[in-house]
Amino acid sequence: MENVERIKSEEMINRIDSRLTKNKVVKGLFFTATLFTSIILIVLLYRIIVQGAPYLSWDFLQNFASRRPEQAGIKAAVVGTIWMMAVVVPTAAIFGVGSAIYLEEYAGKNALTRWIQMNISNLAGVPSVVFGLLGLTIFVRLFGFGNSILAAGFTMSLLVLPVIIVASQEAIRAVPNELKEASYGLGATKWQTISRVVIPYAVPGIATGSILAFSRAIGETAPLIVVGIPTFVAFLPSGVFDSFTALPMQIYNWTSRPQEEFHNLAAAGIIVLLVVLIMMNSVAVWIRNRYQSR
Amino acid sequence: MTLTAVKSKENNQAGQTENVLVYNTKDLNLWYGDHHALKNINLEINEREVTAIIGPSGCGKSTYIKTLNRMIDLVPGVKTNGSIEYRERDIFNKDFLVEELRTRVGMVFQKPNPFPKSIYENIAFGLKIHGIKNKQIINETVEKSLRGAALWEEVKDRIHEPAYGLSGGQQQRLCIARCLALEPDVILMDEPTSALDPVSTLKIEELIQELKQRYSIIIVTHNMQQAARISDRTAFFLNGEVVEYDVTDTIFNSPADSRTDDYISGRFG
Q1: Residue contact A182–B175, C-beta within 8 A
Q2: Position B15 in a domain
Q3: What residue intervals traverse the membrane (chain A) (predicted)?
Q4: Contact indicator for B22, B212 with CB cutoff of 8 Å
Q5: Which residues pair with B236 in a beta bridge?
Q6: Is residue B85 left, alpha or beta, with left meaning phi > 0 and alpha meaning psi from -120 to 50?
Q7: What pTM value is reported for the model?
């Protein structure tokens, strides 16, 4: 008996080498995958920076679009994007978080809710062009907003709404049931429980999800094209019913010009857009860390 | 032995002075969907006593205590019939608002569940939701409640620090303090010590003995020694029915039903 056991453990020890080899191979595969992605990203960034950095200047941020590349700037696009986001952020946040609270806390768990839920999840995957067409039909034509900030802002809100709803729902669902019970157990009403226990607990999740969705809205071009947002704008909007242009539209316009200089301007515009996105994502990370350490 | 002797003496006294009921359950049935979880429950619960509910897992003891303050409403698909009278008012009656019931009847849960707020804010929460804004009243109530839950001395220097920094036992006493802040009439405790170490458990048990002077306490426990130590009356639940309900001494020393005897002597459950 003892002999048999000893042989067995020897065999197992002999196998350690091959197990460790497998261990290394797998690690190598994953590392290669990461490396590949990183290299592509670095090459992309490098090209954009080499192309665009020389064109980055105070004038570039301060000038309107121009036929002459040396005078062209992104002032109208930056201001336009800010205006658009001023519409998107409150609209999408109110409707998105509101829907999420309703679906998680109020709606009965029945077939209708499941159906709505499934549709919301599907909407998150619908191509942005489709949202553009919806916006064109409803906001531009039916409501007669034209190619205004309001029309584009509402269209973008629709685009990011499903993402915000799903992210907020997940954050709300993650609120421990024990905390809700504690609140109800003290005689709190449903709204008091939601506003004092559920929402404060879910805020980090809701905020990070929403910010990531908003950064998508900043970078999207297709819906703006479909809605009919102009690319050559030499004025600043003074209200939500004014026409405007946005950063991705300006970049798109410049890349489609034949002159090399405009391509470099587009690269400079991309750098500005990337900086904005990195800033927004940093805020999301900051919020998450801040509330997690609590 | 002396402890049980003292207890039975107390019970006799309680028997002499007429018992006032806080809860009177009549023919209560409860279903989770098709599952008949509580069957014809009839229980009279006395004021200012500790009533223990014991029984094996799945016997319906937690369901019953959650019905007493209608926390069971949070579970979808629950149906009930029969009645539970709290101070002679039917808790299932539409006129008896569930918010009022839960203000008069506090609850302590199995796992300590303080809010992710400061110790102070945890206790102030109950007052604030009931519209009490006066800082001085809140401050006084926080101290009084923490004293009432035998926690003040341990936390008085850090009441503005997060409640999550407290030990499990302290958190559970904080949850008791949170109940006390609303000056409840009854405190329901659903296995309040099952997540705690023996020392913390002992502290909670001592606290329950003190609280009994002012509050009626109903405690679900799977720890039979605990029921024997702290309760005046014990109800033994089995498969959704009350097998036996009597003075704790009787339940543990001379139960009338053989199933009770089997359970308390550890033959099942």
Answers
A1: yes
A2: no
A3: 28-49, 82-103, 123-143, 149-167, 224-245, 265-287
A4: no
A5: B54, B244
A6: beta
A7: 0.83
CB distance from A70 to chain B under 8 Å?
Answer: no
Which residue range(s) make up the domain with A39?
Answer: 2-55
Cβ–Cβ contact A47 with B under 8 A = no
Q: Which residues of B touch A (CB under 8 A)?
A: 69, 71, 74, 76, 99-103, 106-107, 109, 111, 113-116, 125-126, 128-130, 162, 175, 178-179, 182
Torsion of CA B123, B126, B129, B133, to 10 degrees: -50
Q: What is the CATH number of the domain that holds A199?
A: 1.10.3720.10
Range of the domain at B122: 48-74+93-264
Residue A186: list chain B partners with CB under 8 A.
Answer: 102-103, 106, 125-126, 129, 178-179, 182
In degrees rounded to 5, what are phi and psi of residue B249?
A: -55, -50
Q: What is the CATH number of the domain that holds B252?
A: 3.40.50.300
Residue B33 placed within a domain: no
Split into its structural domains, chain A has a count of: 2
* Chain B contacts in chain A segment 107-126 (CB below 8 A): 108-109
Taking CA A89 as the corner, what is the angle to CA A88 and CA A94, rounded to the nearest 5 degrees? 105
Let me know if residue B56 belongs to a domain: yes
Specify whether A145 is located in the same domain as A230.
yes
B41 within domain boundaries = no
**Residues contacting residue B148 through CB under 8 Å, at least 6 positions apart:** B176, B177, B180, B211
Kindly state the DSSP code that residue B20 receives in the 8-state scheme: P
Q: What's the pLDDT tens digit per position in A81-113? A: 999 999 999 999 999 999 999 999 999 888 999
